[in-house]
Amino acid sequence: MRELIDRGEIERGQLGVTIQDVTPDLAEALGLDRPEGALVNQVAAGSPAETAGIRASDVIVGVDGEPVGRVADLKLHMGLARIGSQLQSYLVRNGDTMQLTAELTKPADQRLSVPADVPLLAGVVLEATDTGPSDAAGVRVADIDPDGPAGRAGLSVGDVIVSVDQQPVDAPNEVLSIARSSPNALLLQVMRDSGMIFIAIV
Hints:
seven-stranded antiparallel β-sheet; 202 residues; six-stranded antiparallel β-sheet; globular
């Protein structure tokens, strides 16, 4: 509320990672005692996470002294984190526990047009959900070519993409990162009119 009064908008800090919950099978494979934490799938180039030394396959188990039992815990904390704040991350890497500090930055990709190297999303313009009237987690479709692959599959303007190939997304660059690794087919989980649907793009 104070930020809305002072600035007229809410600015959230960005860490720059894509994450997923730790399943029992993943916990065993990673050598963890129990399935908890947020597993880092990917670290964005030039992001605060990369600068701090966070790597893919790290498991974030705490932030700022608070435990992270699952992805939702980290997302909730990040939703309250301000730009420029210092995020203390506690993580497990190869069985060792360590603490890293990241200075959160403003997302550089609030709105972007999908580039040519992601053909399944050709003609789509994505924007962060905090740029519009909705505060839902995910990435909003700001514009779309109805004749492109995504448009033909049923994706529409105003849809909020909450996961791509079962990986949660919160920023346009996260959608692109996952889409680049799946050039032949994409499974989108989309929020539309307060309901959830799946859209397959092939």
